[in-house]
């Protein structure tokens, strides 16, 4: 019954922007830390950003200043605003929810940055 459904991925030109959304259901969204991770072909999955239930954010160094994570607990949704996208950002982006001993993952959404 636990679900994390990502949306908003697609093809964008370098320098463009995308806003990813992740809608959660089947768990107490408001008390979970939420996060975005990504995985490019042939690469390991890496952290993009996280946001706690209290609103504290954390970003990977390469994403600082370009990406912004936010959440709307009333909508059980976490967002990732991505600006000034680069070809190196091309990857499948995954939504994650975790709370101590529990961890849930979405199926991912493809982001392709190309001219």
Question: Could you explain how this protein is built, in words?
Answer:
The protein is mostly beta strands. It contains no helices and eleven strands. The protein has strands at 3-7, 10-12, 18-25, 33-39, 46-51, 57-59, 67-72, 77-82, 91-99, 102-105, 109-113. The strands form two sheets. Strands 2, 4, 5, 6, 9, 10 and 11 form a seven-stranded mixed beta sheet that branches. The chain is globular, with a radius of gyration of 13 Å. The model has no long low-confidence stretch (mean pLDDT 97).
Descriptors:
115 residues; mainly beta; 7-stranded mixed beta sheet; 0% helix
Which geometry do the CA atoms define? globular
Radius of gyration: 13 Å
The share of residues in extended strands comes to over 45%
How far is it from the N-terminal to the C-terminal residue, by CA? 39 Å
**DSSP helix fraction:** under 10%
Query: How many separate helices?
Result: 0
- Secondary structure class reads mainly beta
Give the biggest beta sheet: 7 strands, mixed
* DSSP summary, beta strand count: 11
Which helices and strands appear, and what pairs or packs with what?
Layout lengths: L2 E5 L2 E3 L5 E8 L7 E7 L6 E6 L5 E3 L7 E6 L4 E6 L8 E9 L2 E4 L3 E5 L2
Parallel strand pairs: 2-11
Antiparallel strand pairs: 1-3, 3-8, 4-5, 4-9, 5-6, 7-8, 9-10, 9-11
């Amino acid at each position: 019954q636990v679900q994390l459904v990502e949306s908003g991925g697609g093809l964008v030109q370098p320098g463009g922007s995308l806003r990813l959304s992740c809608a959660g259901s089947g768990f107490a969204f408001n008390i979970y830390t939420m996060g975005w991770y990504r995985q490019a072909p042939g690469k390991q999955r890496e952290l993009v950003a996280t946001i706690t239930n209290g609103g504290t954010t954390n970003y990977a160094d390469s994403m600082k200043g370009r990406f912004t994570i936010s959440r709307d607990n009333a909508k059980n949704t976490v967002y990732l605003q991505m600006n000034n996208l680069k070809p190196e950002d091309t990857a499948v982006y995954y939504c994650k929810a975790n709370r101590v001993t529990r961890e849930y993952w979405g199926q991912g959404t493809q982001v392709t940055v190309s001219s």
